Recover the amino acids of this structure.
C-alpha cells in the first residue's frame, strides 16, 4: 500500500517549493515597510519605513529594546497581523515574488513550507490540550502529500534532531509535561518540520536559564547550517547576536538606526544607541556588585514621537540639530554599514558634541554609559 495519501487543500506544489532553476537575487527583500496601528490615542507607528535584504543561508540579527518594533517587523514580513485597525505599506519580495498583499489562503501556503517562526513563549504558543506529536504532524499533513504514519515517524525524527531524549514517548505528551527548554525545542521542531527556507526566531531564549539559552541558540545554528536556511534572529541582547549572525540591524522607535556586518558593527559602531546597548551588557571582568549600566529614560511615544532624532532625549551626544532634524541612514566607509546620526560615535564631531555636553552639564540622558571611544565589545567569533 502506498505511504502517500491524496494531497489536501492548501498543499504547496513541489515545483512551487523547489524551483527547477535557482533564483538570482536575495531570498528576502523588504522595501520601506510601514506597519501602523489605529488606536484610540492615535496612529501607533510600530514599524516606520524599514528596508533590508537577506541572502539564502545567511543570518540577520534584529536588535533593540522592547517596543522598538522588532517583533512587529517579523510578523509584518510573515503576514501575521490583525486585519482591523491596521495601516500597512511597502513591498516584500520573497524569492522575487511580491508577497506584500497576498490573500489569506496564499499566505497560509507560505507558512511552514517557505517561512516559519519560533515564537517567544512556547507555553502560550503550543496548544495545551493537544499532544506534542499531533502539533508537529498538523503542518506536515496540511502542506505535504504524506500519510499519517509517515508524518508520525517524521515527528519522532524531528524531536530527536532537536535533542529531545526518548522522542517516541515525548510525542505522546502534552506541553505542560515538559520543561521550558524542551518546549522551546518542540517549537523549533514544529517550525522546521516542512523545511522552510526562512526561519524567524523571535526572542527564542526568553525566560530560559543561561545554560539552556546557549543550547537553544546552538541548536538553531546547527539546524540552519544543516538545512541551509536563512534566519532572522530577533533579540534585545547584542551579546546573543555577536557570534551568531552575518549582519545586524539595530532598531529604535520603529526604524533601523544602524545596520552593518556583525564584525563591522562592533568594531566601528557609529550610532549612540548601539553604543548604549553594548555598554549595558554585563561584563565578567567587572567586580561583584558593580552597578550595571542602563540607558536612562524611556523609549519614545510612538503616537507622538519627538521632533528630530527619536533617540535625542536620551542621547549624551545630542545637539540642537538632533532635536530639530531627523537624520537619514547615511553610508559609512565600510561596505554595507549605514547609520542614522548627525554626530556619530568615534568621529571628531561626535567626540566634540559629547565633550561639549559634559562641559555645559547638558546630560539629557547620562554620560556614564558613553565614552568618546568604545573598546570593550562582546567577543565575535
Amino acid at each position: 500500500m502506498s505511504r502517500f495519501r491524496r494531497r489536501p487543500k492548501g498543499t504547496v506544489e513541489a515545483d512551487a517549493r523547489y524551483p527547477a532553476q535557482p533564483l538570482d537575487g536575495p531570498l528576502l527583500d523588504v522595501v520601506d515597510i510601514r506597519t501602523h496601528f489605529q488606536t484610540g490615542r492615535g496612529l501607533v507607528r510600530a514599524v516606520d519605513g524599514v528596508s533590508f535584504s537577506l541572502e539564502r543561508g545567511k543570518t540577520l540579527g534584529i536588535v533593540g529594546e522592547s517596543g522598538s518594533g522588532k517583533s512587529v517587523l517579523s510578523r509584518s514580513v510573515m503576514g501575521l497581523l490583525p486585519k482591523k485597525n491596521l495601516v500597512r505599506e511597502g513591498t516584500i519580495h520573497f524569492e522575487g515574488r511580491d508577497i506584500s498583499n497576498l490573500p489569506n489562503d496564499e499566505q497560509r501556503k507560505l507558512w511552514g513550507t517557505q517561512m516559519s517562526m519560533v515564537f517567544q513563549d512556547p507555553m502560550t504558543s503550543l496548544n495545551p490540550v493537544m499532544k506534542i506529536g499531533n502539533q508537529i504532524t498538523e503542518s506536515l499533513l496540511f502542506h505535504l502529500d504524506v500519510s499519517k504514519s509517515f508524518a508520525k515517524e517524521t515527528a519522532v525524527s524531528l524531536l530527536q534532531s532537536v535533542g529531545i531524549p526518548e522522542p517516541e514517548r515525548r510525542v505522546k505528551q502534552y506541553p505542560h509535561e515538559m520543561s521550558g527548554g524542551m518546549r522551546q525545542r518542540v517549537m523549533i521542531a514544529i517550525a522546521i518540520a516542512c523545511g522552510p527556507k526562512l526561519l524567524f526566531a523571535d526572542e527564542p531564549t526568553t525566560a530560559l536559564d543561561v545554560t539552556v539559552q546557549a543550547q537553544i541558540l546552538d541548536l538553531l545554528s546547527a539546524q540552519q547550517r544543516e538545512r541551509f536556511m536563512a534566519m532572522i534572529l530577533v533579540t534585545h541582547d547584542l551579546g546573543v547576536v555577536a557570534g551568531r549572525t552575518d549582519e545586524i540591524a539595530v532598531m529604535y522607535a520603529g526604524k533601523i538606526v544602524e545596520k552593518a556586518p556583525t564584525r563591522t558593527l562592533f568594531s566601528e559602531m557609529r550610532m549612540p544607541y548601539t553604543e548604549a546597548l553594548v555598554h549595558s551588557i554585563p561584563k565578567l571582568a567587572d567586580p561583584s556588585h558593580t552597578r550595571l549600566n542602563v540607558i536612562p529614560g524611556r523609549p519614545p511615544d510612538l503616537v507622538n514621537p519627538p521632533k528630530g532624532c527619536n533617540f535625542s532625549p536620551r542621547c549624551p551626544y545630542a545637539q540642537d540639530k538632533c532635536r530639530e532634524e531627523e537624520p537619514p541612514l547615511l553610508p559609512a566607509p565600510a561596505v554595507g554599514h549605514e547609520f542614522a546620526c548627525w554626530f556619530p560615535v568615534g568621529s571628531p564631531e561626535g567626540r566634540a558634541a559629547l565633550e561639549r555636553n559634559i562641559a555645559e552639564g547638558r546630560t539629557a540622558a547620562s554620560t556614564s554609559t558613553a565614552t568618546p571611544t568604545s573598546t570593550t565589545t562582546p567577543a565575535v567569533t
In short: Residues 274-284+304-381 form one domain.
